[in-house]
């Protein structure tokens, strides 16, 4: 037989070797993929752990910041109880900084809007409580062994107490935060300054219109209240406003029942909608916008007004505005949430 000239057939061993190579390559590829997956998983785990660690750090940082603010508040309150005026003034300043920080650092401390609002109202109560306590002390110590006091709410000239002036300044600072407080959408704050002695207080532009303001019987004789803002939530009944500078003030809707405005400069002020039953309006200076019958009232030219001379006129600073006027009512409770509680009308 002759030798075949066809191509040699590949052996079965050659075919087996080729499959093994392919299988090895496949396993190698899967091993690479698996290795990549393990590495990726390790990276993800690392990231998760890092995030959790950062959250822990952030939480600890928030807690530390919150504790720092609370410690500062405690220090301020302690200082307010000091017998030294300098320490009390420092406490008032520290309290101002504390309430400002509550707003600016809310994102860092994680404090909720409701809690920040609570911090704000608490500070407002502390300032107003300080004024009530210390102006009350000023009045109770007025006699100094004399049978007849030389001053009191509505008459005489009380001594200047720097801490009282400073605390009243902080009230204006707090009320100037209207936009920040409104952004919290947490409600309407309330402030109680009833019967406080704030003779000659510089409160130009102060805005009580957006809060519940209970100022029954407050003594603001000779106060600087130009462009001040008041509204239907402002209770100034029985207030002493003799010789006050009320130019450009807005009293629309405010309660001025039995208040004493004698000798005040009301040039450009707006009293439309204000309650003026029993209000003492004698010897008023300047042209204002009045409700109803008061529009026919005769006033003196604003150019003739002299505050210093006015304050020396004892006929304008005798005790109540009217001998027949009922006594200034005492609040039976805090003005929150209704500052008119206990108001006699």
Brief description of this entry?
This protein has a domain of 158 residues: Pectate Lyase C-like (3 Solenoid). The protein contains 7 helices and 3 strands; from the N terminus they run H-H-H-H-H-H-E-E-E-H.
Radius of gyration, whole Å: 37 Å
This entry's quaternary arrangement is single chain
Number of beta-strand segments: 3
Shape: elongated
Structural class: mainly alpha
Protein described:
The chain has 7 helices and 3 strands, in the order H-H-H-H-H-H-E-E-E-H. The model is unreliable at 10-14, 43-59, 320-326 and 336-345 (pLDDT under 50). The protein has a domain at 188-345: Pectate Lyase C-like (3 Solenoid). With 345 residues, the chain is mostly helical.
Please name the defining characteristics of this protein:
single chain, 345 residues, mainly alpha, Pectate Lyase C-like, 3-stranded parallel beta sheet, 2% strand
